[in-house]
Specification:
Blueprint (H helix, E strand, L loop, with lengths): L9 H10 L7 H21 L10 E5 L5 E3 H16 L5 E4 L6 E2 L3 H5 L2 E9 L10 E9 L10 H4 L6 E9 L3 E7 L2 E8 L4 E6 L10 E3 L10 H11 L10 E2 L5 H11 L1 E5 L12 H14 L3 E3 L19 E4 L1 H6 L7
Parallel strand pairs: 3-5, 11-12, 11-13
Antiparallel strand pairs: 1-2, 3-4, 5-6, 6-7, 7-8, 8-9, 9-10, 13-15, 14-15
Bound molecules: 2,5-anhydro-1,6-di-O-phosphono-D-mannitol and magnesium ion (MG).
Amino acid sequence: MHTSRRVLTLDEFTIQELRQFPAATGELSGLLREIGLAAKRINVEVNKAGLVDDILGDAGSVNVQGEDVKKLDLFANNQLISVLRNGIYCAGVGSEEDDDIIVFDDEVSNRSKYVVLMDPLDGSSNIDVNTTIGTIFTVYRRVSPLETPCTQKDFLQQGVKVVAAGYVIYGSSTMLVYATRRGVNGFTLDPSIGEFCLSHPKMRCPDKGKIYSVNYGNYPSYSQEVRAYLDACTYKTEENGGPYTMRYIGSMVGDIHRNLIKGGIFLYPGTASKPRGKLRLLYECNPMAFIMEVAGGMATDGTRRILEVVPEHLHQRSPLFLGSKSMMEDLLIKPGN
Ligand code: AHM
Ligand code: MG
């Protein structure tokens, strides 16, 4: 009987990758599958957010960044922590929602060589209006000795040390996209079997793009260089590669996912009152920069490669510029300038 080729599920894909490296222990694959499981649980709740009163809306508390915490943020945070704590591949977690790192500190977890940083539900101000939101995660190999509890040093690593990073986008369909140094692959959740299936193998960000994504409302408080770049984007003509189009959801997972596929640039610059911008280096900028670089794009904070920034504290913010190579090269603010 002829059996047509099935699309690989996330589990099958990670196992197949493993088969190519007989020396690999399978820990990273296991960790990615655990994150996939948490993502499916979060997806179920995200999908019924409009139906369930006690899920939709504010949780009534304020997180460490001083922002309102939505109930779904808490749910997503708890799901990820619980799946990783109950699993065997993670020594501890740093979350945008938690003041400090969470050290699992049990015999099995202390043997794990990885720690995970995450933004459990990014763009959560979009929950109430049924717009795309996402989960972002980053995996680092710990620097503290195995068989001991992980420490803050394991989390305060430069982006160049990222082992894997990814996001889950809860959009018109749900996708999990993750990058290792070997490539970026995207998996779409097939609701009929409840599995992420490989739909976007070997994702590459087009070198040239025509989309620029920025909160234009902040234009007056951007630096002169950023304003000049935005003006140049606005006035692009056919003769010089334009016209460009401006697209901004206000949910970075959605904005960057679109630009990764179609080609484009995403900017969240500092402003006069917030020179370091809004986005968090460890939970948002590093993972997206890593994915973008593996996909062939570039990411800077305006003066340096994001992945080379040495983090000083868990919740520090950074300006972020990332996207298609040629658009990044056009950006007046270049690394080293
Ligand atoms: P959050 O982590 O509180 O959800 O904030 C991050 C989000 C990003 O997804 C998005 O790019 C940015 O905030 C939008 O901010 P703004 O409304 O200032 O443009
Ligand atoms: Mg966020």
